Automatic annotation (TrEMBL):
It comes from the Bacteria. This is Glycosyltransferase. Signal peptide: none annotated. It holds the Pfam family Glft2_N. Residues 26-133 form the Galactofuranosyltransferase GlfT2 N-terminal domain. InterPro entries: GlfT2_N (IPR040492), Nucleotide-diphossugar_trans (IPR029044).
Amino acid sequence: MKLQNILFPTASTAGEGGMYFFTSSKMTDSGQIRLKAGESLTTDTYFNGLSADKWKKYTVVREVTLTLHLQGKVQYALFSKVDKDGGEEKLAEGILTPDTGWETLPIPWEKARGIVYFRLTALEPSVFYGGWYTCAAPAQRPVKIALDICTYRREAYVKENCRLLWERMTRDPDFGHFLIFVVDNGRTLTPEDLPEGVRLFPNANAGGSGGFTRGLMEIQQAARQENITHALLMDDDVLLEPEALLRTYTLLSLAKVEYRDGVVGGAMLRLDKKSVLVESGALWNRGWLISRKKGLDVSLPGACLESEAEEPVDYTAWWYTCLPLSLAREDNLPLPFFVRGDDVEYGLRNARHILLLNGICIWHEPFENKYAAYTEYYILRNQLIANAIHNRAFSLQEIRSYVKNRVMEEVYMYRYRSAQLLMDAVEDFLKGVDWLKQTDAQALHQEILKKGGTFLSPEETAQLFDQESYGKSIAKKTELPFFHKVMRRLTVNGTFLPSAVPMVSVPVLGNLEINVYRAEKALYYDKATGRGFVAQKDAKQAKDCLKRLHRVERRLSAEYEKTNHQFRQRYRELTNRKFWQAYLGLPPQR
């Protein structure tokens, strides 16, 4: 059975050659590498190294071979990379002069560990056309994967991704184990927009959780006739390396019995810096999420081993998560979170074994390039619900302190809309299971969007933007005297003092409250989009937020434990097919 193909850079990743090969020869997206005499290439890379330790741990792989397509005379050597600083063990070596262009080399699998890779050195002008790794072990069970793609008014992304995937599926027999289900929360797509074999389901706009859940429900129904075994939840706006699908299929097909309920997660790489990881699995950390491998540049030497180092993880995000339908049952569906935290809670509930593998990944716009006030509501509300269900130790004292600090941060920065939304989140959480069950998700979302406000256009933002104050705001800050800190607290960051400057420009994310101290207005600038919004100091709004915060703290003291208990006891009322059919406005019998 084929384990993985040797990949070449594509048109979109041509500048990230170190993810594929290390070589002095010029790399293009032509699917070949021409080597002059004396030049070499190695594959101890993110996409082309073979993760021996993981294939041995999670699967029944045995008798592994490497097939190479070559022209010319080359010296080869097979290695195990055992530490990120260059430590390696030679497994085999020799000279190849292929008459047919193809050579198959046995790999001493019992000796292989870390990352297995090969080096080719041209003894005369030669061409490398690719190859693959295979193993003698047959598939341990049938696997058929349905892609569950949720979209909302991103027609261009969905059309292009579905076109590329369907084209590959129809011409490559290796892709015969996949189906595509698209759930359209915006109801803007028609069947004619997508390839004939893609299944389209117009859906109520119940957010990502509603879209992905609708997809799971349709996949569950189709599975009865089509022997679907897994659902792959995937964002609509990602850049995908199709090989990720094949490695996912192979990993699941060869899995040992104890890992057959495993969830395969895809790492996220930055779309703007394509070799830099954003996350490869994550820890819940009671809602203060920790992204594993964040910032690792997988194009650097040794990074292929570092990226495969196993660490505890609690969940994988729904930009790429493949889970068995034995877990995603009709009585074990996601919670109606709309957005933010749905994948976290579902992972905590179901992911007993999380399988991560180099090359199973997507590219996505990094989240620091995204800001919207409305998301603060969902993040906090859904964090409270997830903690109620999964973490009895999240105390009243902790949550009161956290809520107070978050609200005051927004008040200090004049972002009174966001402060109010945070308090809305707490109060809606305290309304409990029945409120969440009966809420019109679309109407609530529109209300939250309205409260969150809107960004100015890039043209309007440019007229207000001040480079000098923005530069100061992103510069490293020195420690301020204790008296200054006390003064800022007593005056709510200068809200009750006369303004010293008319306006400052500051980053929309990662801003420090000191940057707006005693400014009349602040332009919150989003560098990625060139858009921004203006927040103005307002003593009355600040006082209103403080008064409401006191009321919210009192309600938390009185109702927090009762609400926690209710969610723990009754959350299953929100995770079954009957509930979701009503929630999405679907007929009761489907």
